[in-house]
Each structure stands twice: as structure tokens, then as C-alpha cells.
């Protein structure tokens, strides 16, 4: 019934079954049998999840990695899925697309003149999983002020 609702990793399913199972010893055989049947396939799930987060939400590698860890995908498997999904991807172009989507309707050079807006945009990019260096590189294209601000001052709340 749990897998009928949505796809999940074996770690997620194991956690949910622990809450419902009368006997914890019954969980591992169920997981093994579902894996044999192909209903649970963590590598396939990790790649599909990473691809969806990249294509649909426009998230970067760090965010997708955090999300896969929350889904209880093993670290090595998550890294492999991310490497496959993001192979040949230009992070700077993804950042440009992310900014255009998140700040649509705003004149970015004008909007990012204010320090608080520049800091907000930087934090949004970092939360979305983009690297600091590429985030700053793109922000510098829009704001002359970004050339004079270092990473530490952008991460602090400007109030």
C-alpha cells in the first residue's frame, strides 16, 4: 500500500514499515522480496529523483544531494546519481535560468542594486544547491556592488 502512493527508496520504506510492523524481523525479508520483484530499485529511484529535481525545480547538485540523503539513499549511490544527472550541465546557465524564473517580472540589475536584495538572491541560490563561486559570478553580472561584497557578508542577514 505504501509503494502504491508514490515511489520511495528502500530506506524510506524500511522506516515507514518500522512504524507499522508488529515484528521488526519481518521488515528485511519484505524489503528483499520487493527488491527482487523490481518494485524497489534505489539506483533507478535516485537517478529519477535527481533528474526531476534538476529539470522541474532547477535545483543544483548540493540541494539534490541533501534531498537524496533525506530519502535515505546511500551516499555513494546519491553521488553516482548526481554525477550521471548533472554530467555536461553548465551550472552558470542553470543559475541564470533559476534567477530569471524566481525573479521574473523584476529588472534584475535594478533589483540587485540594493544590498538586501543581493544577499537574498545569494541565499536563494545557495539554498537551491548552487556553488558560491558560480553564484557570485552570475550575481556580479547584474550588480556592480557584488564585486565589492565577499561571501561572508552576503550570508549574514543585512538587518
Short note summarizing the structure:
With 159 residues, the protein is mainly α. 69% of the residues lie in helices and 0% in strands.
Please explain how this structure is put together.
25% of the residues are buried. The protein is elongated, with a radius of gyration of 20 Å. The protein has helices at 2-5, 10-20, 27-37, 42-57, 61-70, 75-86, 91-102, 108-111, 115-127, 132-142, 151-155. It is mainly α and 159 residues long. Helix 2 (10-20) packs antiparallel against helix 3 (27-37), helix 4 crosses helix 5 (61-70) and helix 4 crosses helix 6. It folds into two domains: 2-86, no CATH class; 91-155. The longest helix has 16 residues, at 42-57.
How far apart the termini lie comes to 49 Å
Global geometry: elongated
Query: If you average the pLDDT, what whole number results?
Result: 86
Relative helix content: 55-70%
Summing up helix and strand content along with how strands pair, one would put the structural category as: mainly alpha
Question: How large is the radius of gyration?
Answer: 20 Å
Question: How does the major sheet shape up?
Answer: none
Along the chain, the helix and strand elements come as HHHHHHHHHHH
Separate helix tally: 11
Strand content range: under 5%
Contiguous runs where pLDDT drops below 50 for at least 5 residues? 153-159
Number of structural domains: 2
In total, the number of strands is: 0
Oligomer: single chain
Amino acid at each position: 500500500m505504501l509503494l502504491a502512493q508514490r515511489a520511495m527508496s528502500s530506506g524510506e520504506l524500511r522506516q515507514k514499515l518500522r512504524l507499522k510492523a508488529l515484528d521488526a524481523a519481518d521488515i528485511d525479508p519484505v524489503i528483499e522480496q520487493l527488491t527482487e520483484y523490481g518494485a524497489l530499485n534505489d539506483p533507478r529511484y535516485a537517478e529519477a529523483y535527481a533528474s526531476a529535481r534538476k529539470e522541474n525545480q532547477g535545483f543544483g547538485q548540493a540541494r539534490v544531494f541533501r534531498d537524496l540523503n533525506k530519502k535515505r539513499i546511500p551516499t555513494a549511490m546519491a553521488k553516482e546519481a548526481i554525477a550521471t544527472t548533472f554530467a555536461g550541465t553548465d551550472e552558470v546557465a542553470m543559475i541564470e535560468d533559476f534567477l530569471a524564473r524566481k525573479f521574473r517580472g523584476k529588472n534584475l540589475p535594478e533589483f540587485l542594486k540594493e544590498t538586501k536584495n543581493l544577499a537574498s538572491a545569494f541565499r536563494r541560490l545557495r539554498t537551491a544547491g548552487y556553488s558560491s563561486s558560480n553564484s557570485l559570478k552570475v550575481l556580479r553580472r547584474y550588480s556592480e556592488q557584488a564585486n565589492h561584497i565577499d561571501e561572508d557578508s552576503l550570508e549574514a542577514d543585512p538587518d
